[in-house]
Write a structure and sequence with these properties.
It is built from ten helices and two strands; from the N terminus they run H-H-H-H-H-H-E-E-H-H-H-H. By secondary structure, it is mainly α. The chain is globular. The longest helix is centred in the last third of the chain and has 29 residues. The protein has a two-stranded antiparallel sheet. The chain folds into two domains: about 90 residues, no CATH class; about 140 residues, no CATH class.
């Protein structure tokens, strides 16, 4: 159950992964920093690409129309009109389910793709534009997810050891998962120092962010395994598709925005 990847190949994709990250991360940071229409435009672009990838994986027809609705859904966020946004979502969901090939499983897969992609887009926008210090919240949570990913990648490949969940993702190890959690706990401590609040809640939040991010990553891996594809796409060299890159962040955005919205005093306890 150890990591059987040859040592000389464990970091073979690192240069191309870093190159992709150096392009994607500044774009994401700029969109989140500016927020509003800028963030909505970035989400619209991401939504278009992610829906294309989902339709390709699940063999859902009308992929460009569904991708266009994904982009339109995100572009409607700054209008602050729930009726318009929900109408677009319902239209996309209806089209996906009705146009899918005959069969319960294919229709469920098509409909789930809309819920999955649209949920991640809405989660990120709400995290940034919610009734708290959204810029800080989004930047903190994004940086924690990236720290979790980096720790899991480097320590998991360097140390190896037993697999985390080989039935869903054969390359993820317990060593990487534990390193990711510890790394995010440390990030939480420094975030608390920056915000001048009790570090306990930030450390717990950092641990939770890492766990949710890794769960989102494993969930996406499980979906690809069921659709019998290695990557969701090829748009990002070294990473695969956009869904491969944002699965953890999408899960954290949904969980984080819900936690901040539902739990009284949570934002204040984080200094947000």
């Amino acid at each position: 159950m150890g990591d059987w990847t040859p040592a000389e190949r464990r970091f073979s994709e690192l240069p191309v992964r870093l190159a992709s990250a150096l392009i994607l991360i500044p774009m994401a940071l700029a969109a989140v920093w500016m927020g509003g229409w800028w963030l909505a435009a970035a989400c619209a672009l991401f939504g278009y690409v992610m829906m294309l990838e989902w339709c390709a994986m699940s063999a859902t027809p009308h992929h460009h129309l569904l991708a266009g609705l994904g982009g339109l859904f995100a572009a409607s966020f700054p209008l602050d009109n729930l009726a318009i946004t929900l109408s677009i979502a319902v239209a996309a969901l209806s089209l996906a389910v009705l146009a899918a090939r005959a069969g319960v499983h294919t229709r469920i897969a098509a409909g789930f793709g809309v819920v999955y992609v649209f949920g991640m887009l809405a989660g990120l926008y709400l995290l940034r534009e919610g009734g708290w210090e959204g810029r800080s919240a989004a930047l903190y949570f994004m940086s924690f997810v990236w720290a979790s990913d980096a720790a899991a990648y480097f320590f998991g490949r360097a140390i190896g050891g037993p697999k985390l969940l080989p039935s869903e993702s054969p390359n993820k190890t317990w060593s990487g998962a534990i390193a990711a959690v510890i790394g995010c706990a440390i990030c939480g401590y420094f975030a608390a120092m920056i915000e001048d609040v009790d570090p306990v809640i930030w450390i717990i939040s950092g641990i939770a962010i890492s766990i949710v991010a890794q769960a989102g990553d494993l969930f996406e891996s499980g979906l690809k395994r069921r659709f019998k594809v290695k990557d969701s796409g090829k748009i990002l060299p070294g990473h695969g598709g956009l869904l491969d890159r944002v699965d953890g962040l999408g899960a954290v955005s949904i969980a984080g925005s819900l936690a901040l919205f539902v739990l009284p005093g949570f934002a204040a306890s984080l200094g947000l």
